[in-house]
Each structure stands twice: as C-alpha cells, then as structure tokens.
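Appendix C reproduces, verbatim, an entry submitted by the partner laboratory led by Prof. M.T., so that reviewers can inspect both the input and the predicted structure.
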Amino acid sequence: MKRAELLTRCLMIVALLSMMSCTQLTPQDSKYYSSRLYDLPYERVFNAVHARVAEYPMGVREADQTKGIVKSRIGGTTPGVEATGSYQVTVAVSQVGNRIRVTPDWKKKTVSSKLTNTHLLPVSIDERPLLYTEFFNELDKHLQY
C-alpha cells in the first residue's frame, strides 16, 4: 500500500513541476516578441520576413512589399506534425521613423459544425508564445550579417 501511495505522490509532484515549467513569457518578453524594431533597410527586412514565412510547411500565400504584408497559407507550423493544428500568420512590415517594425499576427483555424465553415481565430502571444519566439529567433538569423 505504501508503495502505491509513494508512486501516486511522485506522479503528482512530476505533474506539478511540469505545469510550472511550461513556457511562459514575462510581460517584458511578451512585448519584445509581439513586435520588433530593426535598424536595417526596409527591403532587407521585408525579404527576410518573406524568407522566414516561406520556411513554414504552410508556405507563403501572399507577399506584397508595397503594402508591407506577408501572409502564409493555412497549415501546420511544424513539418509532419498535424497535431499542432492549422495556423496562418500574417506579418506586417512597416516604417517607423528610421526603423522597420515587424509584427506577426497568428490565427488558428477552427471548423464549425458545418464542415464548410472555417474560421480563423486570433492566437495571442500568451496562448502560444512559441509561435512568436520561434518566428523572431529564426527571423533574426536571416537578418544577421
């Protein structure tokens, strides 16, 4: 009996620790990863954003440098892993003074009870911080000299 109790307690502790170590961003990190400014030419930043979105399995649906928009198709963010759901990212690239602002906007596909009705709901940085952090971490690699 004691062995079962010990095992149960151990499992509860492991579950508690795993919940505590979930990826969470501090408010400062959240602001940093929701939008970022770059001291680089607009064209270079836009091309890097386009290349970053093209790396996702869902690929690029639309890219308009004049409007400063790069939009992906709807699909998975990880190759071969459909369990993560279907997402779409729209990235705005805009001039702010002498700097370039990059702002990703993630949406998750939901299907209503009618199979033909597909909706895209916003995904906040608090819900899925890895979508935002991985986007910018990889974008920064594209922008390195």
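The helical segments are 2-20, 27-34, 42-55, 129-143. Additional entries are available on request from the coordinating office.
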